[in-house]
Input
Amino acid sequence: MQNSPFPLRLKQALAAGAALPCLALMPSMIAQAAAQDLATPQTTISAPDAPVPESDEQIGFAADALEYDSDSEIVTASGNVQLLREGNRLRADKVVWNRNSGKVEATGNVSVTDPEGNIAYGDRFDVTDSLQDGMVQNMLLVLQSGGRLAAANGERKGGVYTLHKAAYTGCVVEDHNGCPKEPTWQIKAVKVVYDPVKARVKYTNASIELFGLPLIPMPGFSHPVGDNGGSGLLVPNLRYDRTNGFEVALPYYMKIAPNRDITVTPHIYTDALPMLETNYRHLWDRGAYQITGYATYGSRLATSSSSSTPPAGSEKDFRGYLDASGGLQLTPEWSINGSIRATTDRTFLRRYDISRDDRLRSTLNAQRIGENSYFSIAGWAVQTLRTGDSQGQMPIALPVIDYRLRMKDPVLGGVVQLQANSLAITRTHGQDTQRAFAAFEWNLRKLTPMGQEVTFTTYLRGDVYHSSDNLLTSVASYAGDPGWKARGIAAAAIDVRWPFMGEAFGGVQRIAPRVQIVAAPRIANLSVPNEDARAIDLEDSNLFALNRFSGYDRFEDSTRVTYGLEYSLSLPDFSLESVVGQSYRLNSRESILPDGTGLSDRLSDIVGRTTVRYKDFISFTHRFRVDKDNLSIRRNEIDATIGSRKTYATVGYLRLNRNANLSLEDLQDREELRLGGRVQFARFWSVFGSTVIDLTDAKEDPLSVADGYEPVRHRLGVAYEDDCLTLGLTWRRDYQVLGDARKGNSFQLRLAFRNIGI
Output
């Protein structure tokens, strides 16, 4: 008999698997209870699916045969039995219901699927006819969200499940060939209690096994299930370094609401006072923000100190760091974002290995982005952590206003962009500068009948500056003249590219000669301060730029011709792109571009870039700058990666030999080598490492006392990562000393269990 409504009171029993956690059978825990396959049981149902009942009082029913003994009041359904009620589905080989005792028994390949897709398996289900309570033998529960639990037996009372001799894992229990395997990790317990209302699993006398070996006893351990997470302890972080000694960080996660949480992490050290770390996160429909703070109490040490040990009798003080950031989307066009980064002293971040930044920047910005317009009003401040830098010389910019409007030119065609910009910079002990300008830019791109791409550009701008305390600026060329100053800027350019394309080597080849002519009159550059155009270097990225200075405060006032050649080759698995070029200044007036930039003479240095890619296996980029007089290499930069995502090697090399003025910002020469790699020697195991070596000597920097081989940092580690576990041990050695941040070795153990809900 099949497809007939059967008004038994099976509602609660069918719901027995509705809220069970994601669970899997553990061989070592329940081998004594039952000998069965560790994989999910395969139940073959040949009968049609049970029909959906019309009300909660009815059950959709399907079976091959049905018997009813009126004397004993026993109903027996056999052969691919299916029962459906309120989205819960029970499947079994046989179901017996004793109407006198109210006992319902399901046997033979029993499974119960709830509306969320969680499945409960067992050899035998014994429940009451209300299905509120019951018992299961050899129970296996698989949650749709991931994770498994197995038990020798289990029971349900009042909707709460109690499992005996149970084990939980978030790992798969089959290998890639479909054969049973021991999970990477599992939590074993004498008793496990699961409350579907609280969505939490609690253990009695629990312990974690890793690779089959007992690891951590956890007598009162509990964790949430599913993707929503919950409060609880996270996996501790273990670390050792020479500065602070052995470190134990034990994070505690508190879920305040579905969109808010806080993590409090005490850091305990053997050679330093404890430190407290707190992270608060809040997400809502229009944005999000996070606040992270570190706090401790200890002795400070100046960055210039040659000793890493605090002097006797030194005073201790509060030390800490604040890192906050967030954003708010007010409308589709308007948004607000900002960040705060501040620390109590210059060595705190390096001492506790929080960050290696040498400058901290706090920002606030409100902006509107339209289809053809952009408006921003912002502010920022900088805290320096560099040795020898004066905090009084650090800029505070408020406000920084920028507005741009793009429109089509109805007369000549092309695109017109209007810009208005204002900047106010103050310093506590340095030069103050205020600037405002309005700019007009017109661009027109045309294609000739012969295929040349011609771009016409016109740029006009008017500036107003005011500055004070100019003598406090250390570099005279940056100071400008005090008081009010005005400046006009005008430039025009014609850029011609002539690409030739065709088939070559089984792919497509493109050769594109390029010539650009830029004309600009003499501009009063040195009479105004230079706040944002201090770092300049001729590169392939700015070779054809209208202004090769990095900011607005300096504009290249020369009439010049720039010429170059672009080449590319595209094959199915291979690509090559290259560009090389040089510029020549037509006028003979003295350039404001400093020596060492490659642009100070009428004929510039030669710059270029080459990029090669082969499938996803090889990536190679080379940037260079060659001296135009003697072909000496002034810039030689290589970034290369070879290998797959699992096994690869990276090489980074940089040599700057520009012979620039050492007083200029960011133009110091150096030589550096960076190496890194990863080798996967087994399916889940890999080793990795990296190193940074300072190769600078007197050839690059005349003031350097280095011998040309100064290690900066080494790192070496081993890692294991599969579907449910991440395990890693890393060794690192630092060679640089900054105040109380010593050089020496550090070791860190990383352990993360997945599918555990926190």
In short: The first helix runs from residue 11 to 14.
